[in-house]
Each structure stands twice: as C-alpha cells, then as structure tokens.
Amino acid sequence: MNIGQAAKASGVSAKMIRYYEETGLIPAAGRTASGYRDYSDTDVHMLRFIRRARDLGFAVAEISELLGLWRDESRQSAEVKRLAQGHIEALKKKIADLQDMEQTLTMLVNSCQGDHRPHCPILQRLETDREDENLSIQPRAGAIPRPLQ
C-alpha cells in the first residue's frame, strides 16, 4: 500500500511516517518500480504501535526502545515494566508542575483588579524572578503614579 493508505490505516500522518523513516525509528519502506513507498501490513502494525505509544506520551527515544523490546522475542517483561514505570514518574512530575502553574496563575488572576488601572500583579510576576514578591497592586518600577479614581 502507498503512504497515504498506510497513513489512513495506521492513524499516523504521511509526514510523520516520513519523519519516522528519516530518523530510523522505522525501517525505510520498500519501493515500487515507479519509486513510490510500498508499505506492508506489518509496517502498518508497527505504525499503530508507535501511534498508541505516542498517545500515551512516550518520547520518540522511548518508543525506539519499546520497539526494540517488542521485536526482541527473548526480552524480559521487567525491562518493559521499568520503562513504563519511568514514564509514569515523568508524567506525575509533569502533572505536579502543571498543577503548580495553575495555582500560581489562579493566585495572580485573583490578585489582579482587572480594571482601568495599569497596575497588574500578573505582569509584575512575569517581570521578576522573585517568587516571594508581594503580589498586591503596586506600580511597576519607573511608572508614574496616577491618583486613584
């Protein structure tokens, strides 16, 4: 089957299939007499494996390792489990980091008056590296104070 058919059957775009071939994640497809890529059912099966691994958030390097384990009939499941557990730990860290970002942004949004004044704690936080900075409404450095209305 051609690359378009393989893309449709696997759920992986033709562009990504070419990328996976270029990076060596998958072997280069055979070619027809006219030079078009020719994919087998086995190739499509491998592409589906890659798509499912990507859907679970595995990086290309991890997928390469998973593919190697998948192809290795003498593998030990402990190796696969180790790789998956490492990915779970990375996901947990990412989730915790995202929750921290959400809490910080919520705090900043709640401390911003959102009115006609230019003072904004959101911008103040982005302007400084200090996390312990007071988030109350303060004029930015160099700002000309205006009387409150």
From TrEMBL:
Its main location: cytoplasm. It is found in: Cytoplasm. Residues 1-69 form the HTH merR-type domain. It comes from the Bacteria. Keywords: Coiled coil, Cytoplasm, DNA-binding, Transcription, Transcription regulation. The keyword Cell wall biogenesis/degradation does not apply. InterPro entries: CueR (IPR011789), DNA-bd_dom_put_sf (IPR009061), MerR-type_HTH_dom (IPR000551), MerR_fam (IPR047057), Tscrpt_reg_MerR_DNA-bd (IPR015358). Signal peptide: none annotated. Residues 81-108 form a coiled coil. This is MerR family gold-responsive transcriptional activator of gol and ges genes. It comes from Rhizobium miluonense.
